[in-house]
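As the next step, I needed to go through one protein, both as residues and as discrete backbone shape codes, included below for the reader:
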Amino acid sequence: MQISSKNYWDLLPAIAGIFFTLAFSPFNYAYLAPLALGLLFTSWQNVTPKRALLRGYLFGLGSFGLGVSWVYISIHDFGGADSLSAGLLTCLFCSFWALFPALAGYLSVKILPVNKGLVSVIVMPVIWLLVEYLRGCLVLNGFPWLQIAYSQLATPLAGYIPIVGVYGTGFLTALTAAALVAMLQSKKHRLLLTAVLAALWITGSVLQTIKWTDAIGEPIRVSLIQGNITQDKKWRPENKLGTLQYYKTMTEVHWDSDVIVWPETSIPAYLSEVNEWFLLPLSKAARQHHTDLIVSLPAHGDSTAEKYNAVMTLGKETGMYRKKHLLPFGEYLPWQPVSGFILNSLGIKLGNFTPGSIDQPLLKAGGYAFITSICYEDAFGDAGLINLAAAAYLVNVTNDGWFGDSIEPHQHLQIARMRAMETGRFMLRSTNTGVTAIIAPNGKIISQAPVFKEAVLTDWITPMHGMTPYARLGDQPVIIALIILLFCLIVYLRLLSNKPLSTNR
């Protein structure tokens, strides 16, 4: 039995999707991202929209099937589902997000039925990034995992991050992929494309030498506590007092630090349960040692039905931040009542939190205001720009213990590095089981704790001020520019030819 060349081309995108994921942490083969995307773009040329949709879907299955398979650990090990149910839900999760590369393929070929030379170099990258934006911000509260720009933090394209952020840098990466394809397929514009790519990447290298923000004070000493309390033990009532005593003891050893940060929900009890006998004495001790504590715990609102995932500051400055961007199916249930019925029938119990208000006052610690994000929130660049001009550094508290010893904590750290680069500020990232790290404004990791170890990470950071171009403008100018560019390309193609074009692959 012979396998047709069409079948080979259908298989290629699935393999390319796997290679695409290898460009991200912890693998970090960054240059595989444009190469894998280039293979996908090649497979979309001169085919029907339905065939491009299939190939995009296979690419998504390869990419998400490897890249977010850690969802199984959360559902099975900590969500309480049996192996079969967890496996089916994981497959459903990956299959859903694979629809977005499929959509990109369908739209690309619908707009551009055949290879149009230089037009092809632009159309596919534009559509790819607009679909990334749709997935990353709009659908199900956004799922920005494996967006192409995150793979480029160590390449020259990283120089563009403080200017155009994750979507602009992603477009330049996808543009690189499309240009490489065009250069290999035809000699007609090879010299021009070579010059454009060379200028693009050399400019990126030069931009990496620019400091967009400046110090506004002396360095401050910070300590980040990594408790390494596994998720299956964290909320057991018999462990609560021991957990609180552990964090208190670790804190008292580091009263010489200006700021001490605990990870997400490090306090396994609601604020009302621990405020009087634990938090108030702890805050008093912090003031006596001229230290500020940043802790995390759940808190009720005006009623017990109103629940927040929160961060509190204790010591000289006290305040509370309530998580704004909730995790779907983890902290709230979309598509009710269907999702609730399915998960309840499988015995999976998840949280039902209330989102905090968008414009909350900044918390202060170490004498400076900072931007707070809780876990998943650091995956959204725009969300951290509100009041950024008044903030001197970033703090992210996370509990990636939900995903065990998988690739997820490393991917999440990569995302956090992007936020530091976009804003030109140090990032303090305190996690329960890893990866706890202090990140410089250029995205470099200053110090990092080993995963799944009890650790306290102590170092110095410098308060920063000033705004990068991205911090001033956010994602919207890039997205609007891409939409306008796509509209112009569609008009141009309609004017160029209205004749139907046959397909041969």
